[in-house]
Amino acid sequence: MKRTWRFWVALWVGKFITIGLQISGKKGTTLPGKIAQKIAPEIMKHLSASYTEGIVIVTGTNGKTTTANLLASILREAGKSFAFNQAGANLVTGITGALLQNTQWNGSSSTKLALLEVDEATVPKFCGQVTPSLAIVTNFFRDQLDRYGELDTTVHLVKESLSPETLLILNADDPLVAQFGLGSVRTCFYGVESTPDSCLESHETREAKFCPACGIELKYSLFHYGQLGFYHCQGCGFHRPEPHVLAQNVVAADDLLNFQVGAAAFSTSLQGYYNLYNALAALTAARQLGIEDGLIAKGLRAFIPQAGRMERFRLTGGEVTLTLVKNPTGFNQVIQTILSADKPLRIMIGINDLAADGRDISWLWDVDFERLGMREERIQHIICSGLRAEDMALRLKYAGIPEDKLVIEHSLPAAVNLLQQGRRGDEAAFLLPTYTLLFTLRELLAEQQQKAGLTVIEDRTRKEGAGT
């Protein structure tokens, strides 16, 4: 592939900016990528040509960051080096910046394998220049409709953008994802037999009530959560495909999520059964990359949750868990995880409506907060913060949370302090922010943890798994 003068100018300018940011103590990849894109709009095509061992992408509405980081943990255990947009900059500019960081001044890549998290709305632009060797598709849930439009549109754009040459790693339990395998021979499905939360009936919001092939209503024999489960169409016969990788004997115990795939046993420190799908997606992709199960198991056990994905901090009042919330299905699963702690609860919910969060917050009325209302005796208080704190408090009031347990506090430091004020040792604390509040809260928690002289919570599974 012939490289133009624009490519070389974009490469060198991008690398100079990257070096400047690193010297100033910043880790940003977006600015170098943005400038490079302006100079050479097709720079991703040229940068990707050097990755002779393949380019793996992870996309979908939920779980991209966790899945990508789980796979990265496995690749490291296998001794592989790879380009990676670990910071989660998953738009075109961030992806370009990550590739620039792993490209030498002569235009060759420092590694031969790339692992890239790609925002679902960015997939068409990315695949317009790059043909991934492997694509993981996690799930599709309604998310920020004011930014991305109707979910059907997003699904269609992603489906049409992926090349027939790309091996698809697909969630068999999500009909919106499984449809990608219709007529495709390059597919590998993963799925779950059941979890302790699986049920025969569900009143949760479902995105796929109708068959994606013929439009007739789907029938379910088992629900995991949302539209994920065992489904079939009585019209055209579309149904949940048989997974190539099936999780069985799923159980959460001692802060570990344990499961089996065939005769092989796996575990990860992630909380919440919804994270099982992220682990399965990473496991399935790793197998396709030729990594043996023993190394996969070590990689899953060594994984430490990333920023705001059930991330734990140790403060003077006790451990607190920080996790991002951004759409109804994801929030419902977080609520399920919180309630499964079976402890008195202290909760802080931070809702912003900035562009990165989604301007329309009506999705809060689709979240099943009534489950918290039914267990309000366990709730000490819920602190509502962020630009839309009053809206969040109103929603919780209608869900059955007594007003005397609702606190509105717009100041984040004050809200964090209130969360811990008078806390007993047996109480669990959770902070649930939308995206633009996430990193500010994370910095506050890290600062408090440091001032208290307490170390970052070490994943004990890293030590336990090191010798297995």
- Low-pLDDT runs of 5+ residues are 456-468
What's the pLDDT, averaged over the residues? 88
Tally of individual domains: 2
Beta-strand content? 15-25%
What name is given to the CATH topology of the largest domain? UDP-N-acetylmuramoyl-L-alanine:D-glutamate ligase
Count the beta strands: 17
CATH superfamily of the largest domain: Mur-like, catalytic domain
Radius of gyration: 22 Å
Secondary structure class reads alpha/beta
The outline comes out as globular
| Adjacency order of strands in the biggest sheet | 2-3-1-4-5-6-9-10-11
Just give the CATH class of the largest domain: Alpha Beta
State the share of residues found in helices, binned by percent. 25-40%
Termini Cα gap: 45 Å
CATH architecture designation of the largest domain: 3-Layer(aba) Sandwich
Main β-sheet, in a few words?
A: 9 strands, mixed
User: What is the number of helices?
Assistant: 17
Domain Mur ligase central: 58-197
GO molecular function, one term: carbon-nitrogen ligase activity on lipid II
Organism: Desulfosporosinus acididurans
Binding site for Zn(2+): 211, 214, 233, 236
Description of the molecule:
Its EC number is 6.3.5.13. One of its GO terms (molecular function) is zinc ion binding. The chain crosses the membrane at residues 7-25. Residues 324-437 form the Lipid II isoglutaminyl synthase (glutamine-hydrolyzing) subunit MurT C-terminal domain. Pathway: Cell wall biogenesis; peptidoglycan biosynthesis. The protein is an alpha/beta fold. It has two domains: 5-302, UDP-N-acetylmuramoyl-L-alanine:D-glutamate ligase (3-Layer(aba) Sandwich); 311-451, Mur ligase, C-terminal domain (Protein-Tyrosine Phosphatase, Chain A). The protein contains 17 helices and 17 strands. The strands form three sheets. The protein has a nine-stranded mixed beta sheet with strand order 2-3-1-4-5-6-9-10-11, with helices on both faces. A hairpin with a 2-residue loop joins strand 9 and strand 10. Helix 2 crosses helix 5 and helix 4 crosses helix 11 (293-302). The longest helix has 19 residues, at 5-23. The protein is globular.
